Amino acid sequence: MLLIINQEHFYLREQQVKVCTYARPWHLLQLPYSFLYHRSDDHCNDHFYQVCRDEWDYTDCESCLEGVTCNYTEPYGSEKVTYDGSDDHTDKLDPWFAAVVDEQSGNDCHYDKSDDISACRTCQLGWTACESGEYRETDETEQNNLLKEALFVDTGKVGDMCDYDATVGCYKVDDYTIRYVTAQYIDLNNFLISCGSTWLVYKPYYEAGMDTTGTLTTTNYGTAIENTMSYGPYKLVSLQADKQMVFVQNENWYGYEKQEDGSLLSMTNFEVDGESVPQYAATSVVIDVMDDSSAKQAFLKGELAEWSPSPEEVFAFATSDRLYKVDDTFTMSFFFNCGLKSLQTMDASKGNTNSVVLSSTNFRKAMSLAIDRAEYVTATQGYKPAYSLMNNLYHYDIFNDPTSSYRGSDEAMQAICNLYGVKYGEGTPYATLKDAYQSITGYNLTEAKELFAAACKELIEAGLYKEGEPIVIRIGWAKGALQSADNKQCEILTKQLNAALEGSGFGTLTLEAVGNINDRYADVANGEYAIGYGAWGGAALYPFRNFQCYCDTDQYSVNEIGCWDPATEMLTLNVNGEDVTMSWKDWSGALIGTGRFTDADFATKLYITAQMEELYLQKYYRIPLAGMTNVSLLSYQVDYYTDDYNIMYGFGGLRLMTFNYSDAEWAEYVAEEGGTLSYE
Description:
alpha+beta
C-alpha cells in the first residue's frame, strides 16, 4: 500500500515516516553548512532546528524532535530562535545543554544516578547498567569525583578518563554502542525520551562529502541518493530536492519478516488492547512538497493521507468525523510591560494613549475577568479556553502513572480555584474540589466592573489618569502579517473589555493589534509595546521546571521583566511545615538540577509548583487566554489504530496506521465519488 503525505515547504527532513535520513554529526565542532538549509519551513519534525535560522514560530519548537529538547526538556516560547543566535534555543536551555549544542556532542546520560560506578564502566549500552541504580547522596566534591571516574573517551577503554568540564556529550564506544554523558542529573525516563530521535550517519559517505576549504566544515551527506544511507523500517529510494521524497519498506530492517508471498510483515513488540498488532503497514511512503492550496486540493482528490487545514478552513469541516483535534501544550496569553516609566514613555512616543492604566494590578485583573474566553476562541477553530499556565497535557509521573496530570492534581486545581475565588463544600454550589475547578470560566463581569472602578479611582488619585479620557494600547501581536482570525480576536477582546469599562470612570478602550514584528517578546520587555500576545509551552513530562521561563533571568529573556525582577523579589512558602524564603528566581530552580527540592516527593513538588502558579498569576503580569490545539483531517483510506491520543505517541503515527482500502480499491472509490471527496 502507498501512503502519501504532504508537508508544505519541505526541505530534506524526516516526517511521519520516522526514518532519519539526514543525521546530525556528533563528532564535529561545527555543524556542516549544508544542515543550515536542510530544514523545514512547515514547522513539523525538523531535526535541524538547533541550527541558527532566521524564521521560527512556536510550532517549530513544539514539533521538532518530537519535543525532546523543547517540549519535554525545557520551557520555550514563540519565536525564540534568531539567525544571529542572540535569542536562540541555547539561552533557553540549562547551561549543560547549551554546552552540548555548542560542542555538537550529544544528549543525556545518567551516570550520576548509578549506585555502582563500576557497573557503568562496563556498561555496553552506555546507560543500561545505570538503569537500576539509585541516586547516591553525596556532597558536591565527592559526587563530581565519582562522575569523573565514570566518564571516559570515545575509545571505550576503562582507563581513559575525560575531562568532566569539557566532554559532556555523545561518544562512540564501538560499532553498536553510543555513550551519553551529561553534566547534571537527568532521570532515566526523560533520558529515554531524548533517545526517541537519533542522528546517525554512515561514516564513509559522511566523510567522503566533507569540505574543509571554507571557514565552516561542511558535508554533502544526505543531499542525494548516492550520499545517503537509510536505516529503520523504510529506506529512501528517490529524492528530488524541494519536490519529493519516496521511501519503501527496508527489507534489511530487523523488525520485518518475509511472508510466503514475498511481502514484509512486522508486529509490535508491545501489546495493544492485550495483543501484538501489525505495524508499518504502508509498503511505500511518498512525501510531496506543495503549498497549502495545492495540499487541500490533493487531499480532496484522495492523493494525501492527511491534511492540516488552516484555522479559517477548519470551520468548513467542524462536524466531520474525520477531523482530529487534540490539545497542545501551548497557552496563548497576554503578557505585559507594566513598569510605570516604560508606560509613560510609550504614551509619549510609541503611539499609546493612557496605557499607564496598565500599571494598576486592579486594571489588569479586571481585564482578565472581563474576557469571556468561550466567545473569544470562536474566532478560530484552533483554540480552547485557558484559565491557567499549564493544561492537562502536563504529567509529573507518566511512566509509572499515566493519570498523573499536574492540572488534575488537588494542588493545581486548588491553585486555580483560589485565583478565581471559587470555593467548594458546605454552603457552596460545588460539593468537591473537582466540581469547583471544572466550573471555572475565568469570566466575571460584575467583579470586573468593580475592579475597573477601583482602578480608575486609584489612578486618578495618583495623578496618572483623567476621568473619561480615551485609552489606546498597541499590542505586539504577531511576527507575520495579521490574519483575519487575529483581527477577529482583537475585535472580540475590545468589545468585551469596553462592556466591562462602562460606568467605571474610564473612557473608551481601543486595542490595536500590530503584526510583522521581528521579536514581540523582546519588544514588550524593552518598552516598545505595553502588551504582547504569544504562546508558551514547557516541559510536558516534568512541569516542575516550567517557572524558569518566567523567573530565571540568567537562563531566559523573561518576557515580563518590564514588570518585575524575579531575582530580587522574595517568596516565602511553607514546605512540609517549614517556612522557606527564596527569590522567585531561586524557587524556579529549586526543583531541577541540583536544586534544593529536586529529590523531594511528588506531593512536595506539586505543592511548590501550584503555589508558584497561583501567586504568579495573581500578579497579572500574564493573562492566559486560550490553549492551542492541533487539527488535522484523516483520509477515508486510512485509520489510526486508536482514537486515544497520547502526548508521547500521538495516535500511533505511521507505525500503527491501518488501511481501509488497497491502492487499487482506493482509486476505484475516488472515481466513484467523481474524483473529489467530501469531508464536510
